[in-house]
Design goal:
two-stranded antiparallel sheet, alpha/beta, Rossmann fold
């Protein structure tokens, strides 16, 4: 069955007036019809009843469909009793081969100018899209340059992290959502990988923040009307961005240590107690083990040089498709670390999520999704980034690689629909500098 690609489009500015078009599926409560409606969201139309926005990112294989994730957002909002105040935006990350999909006689994607799509892998980590001719903004949308937010540094190409920057900027600044108090960016599998990186590398438009602050690590974003919007993140079934070059190694002192393999089940109650680990620079044996898990023909030396490169670490911060500097290289790995430390992030995984890791870099983060989530929590604690107030890791017992069930779980609902009791408007504390946030020294 061909993938039904959504007809909605969101304008992405790439310099001056020209824009690219990001396919999106949207859903929200209609006060005109008193029911949930889809594909009726228009940029430039005020929606005063919307208090919450969910930006939901699909994965890379099963259910890599924006319409599926819009429906999951609707189901989650209904379960929480928040459907009448929630907007769902589900970006559709297209591969080049999907442009030939015959899903509608009204839309010919092969000839649509400025349509954002990717040729191959890397779309979820922020790799640049295929080169496209831009469309004049005045023929597409009433948004002006200020509302569209930060500009992509490459004419005709953009990465998903920059797309998210502009969607968040629009929601906060456009004036279309005067009652908005919460933005949650969530993703599962490939989309979870995106959100895990965006929690460290996303930039809110500095123009939306008080004078004197660079805004790179804000969780609560002030608005022109004096109110504030909290931005938070839900990461499900994902791999992670490590902030140093150490990875897990099973402790040789562990009592009754059992063999560790992909179908080893981890639960919230047991955690890592049966497999305690330390963090070390991977040995030759650990690198060989990671390669062996996927039957890779690559060499240990190949993996040693690459395991900590972006998207699994912060070495280089270059685009894996083009080799060009990643847009986040402008503020670097240390600022990314500080960003993550201040942001509200929830990480969920199913205890029976035994999806193959595919790449040996992922095996160095854990044998399966739950193991990776628990180890990442320990990594964040070890380097002094973890905060009990801002960071949460939960394993959903008995669940596998299922984004819908993770979203509808109690921890999923709590992350998607946080309390929005409005703090008093006022200046936020300045973003900390590197000197103000001590880093945990390595042993």
């Amino acid at each position: 069955m061909a993938k039904p690609i959504t007809p909605g489009r969101f304008p992405i500015r790439i310099g001056g007036n020209p824009v690219l078009r990001m396919p999106v599926k949207t859903g929200m409560w209609s006060t005109d019809y008193n029911r949930w409606v889809t594909d009726t969201f228009f940029v430039g139309r005020e929606q005063p009843h919307i208090k919450r926005a969910l930006i939901l990112l699909h994965g890379g294989s099963e259910n890599r469909r924006a319409d599926v994730y819009e429906l999951r957002g609707k189901d989650a909002a209904e379960q929480a009793g928040k459907e009448q105040e929630t907007l769902v935006i589900a970006p559709d990350l297209l591969r080049e081969g999907e442009l030939n999909t015959e899903y509608s006689s009204l839309l010919d994607l092969r000839h649509e100018p400025g349509l954002i799509h990717w040729k191959k892998g890397g779309m979820f980590s922020g790799s640049y899209s295929q080169l496209e001719a831009a469309t004049p903004a005045e023929s597409f949308s009433p948004l002006d340059a200020e509302q569209l937010g930060p500009i992509s540094p490459r004419n005709g190409q953009v990465g998903i992290l920059e797309v998210l920057n502009q969607i968040v900027s629009y929601l906060v600044k456009s004036g279309d959502f005067p009652s908005l108090r919460s933005i949650v960016i969530a993703g599962q599998s490939g989309g979870g990988n995106t959100v895990a990186r965006y929690a460290a590398l996303g930039l809110f438009d500095p123009a939306a923040l008080p004078a004197g602050g660079d805004g790179a690590s804000r969780t609560v974003v002030p608005r022109p009307n004096g109110s504030q919007v909290e931005v938070s993140y839900l990461v499900m079934s994902a791999t992670f961005l490590y902030f140093d070059d150490r990875r897990f190694q099973l402790s040789t002192a562990a009592p009754n240590r059992r063999p560790l393999h992909r179908e080893t089940e981890f639960t919230d109650a047991i955690g890592l107690t049966a497999y305690p680990s330390t963090f070390v620079i991977p040995s030759e044996g650990q690198l060989a083990w990671a390669l062996q898990q996927e039957g890779s023909t690559r060499t240990v030396d190949w993996l040693r040089k690459r395991y900590n490169s972006y998207e699994y670490g912060t070495d280089g911060l270059v685009d894996e498709g083009t080799g060009d500097p990643h847009y986040a290289s402008s503020f670097g790995a240390l600022q990314a670390r500080l960003n993550f430390a201040q942001r509200r992030v929830t990480i969920l995984a199913g205890s029976k999520d035994f999806e193959p890791a595919v790449f040996p870099h992922r095996n160095l983060q854990g044998v399966n999704a739950a193991h990776r989530a628990l180890l990442y929590r320990e990594h964040l604690k070890e380097i002094g980034v973890w905060s009990d107030n801002r960071h949460t890791v939960k394993i959903i017992d008995g669940e596998g690689h299922n984004g819908r069930k993770l979203m509808l779980s109690q921890p999923g609902e709590a992350a998607l629909f946080p309390s929005i009791s409005q703090p008093a408007p006022g200046p936020l504390r300045p973003t900390p500098t590197v000197d103000e946030v001590p880093l945990q020294p390595r042993p």
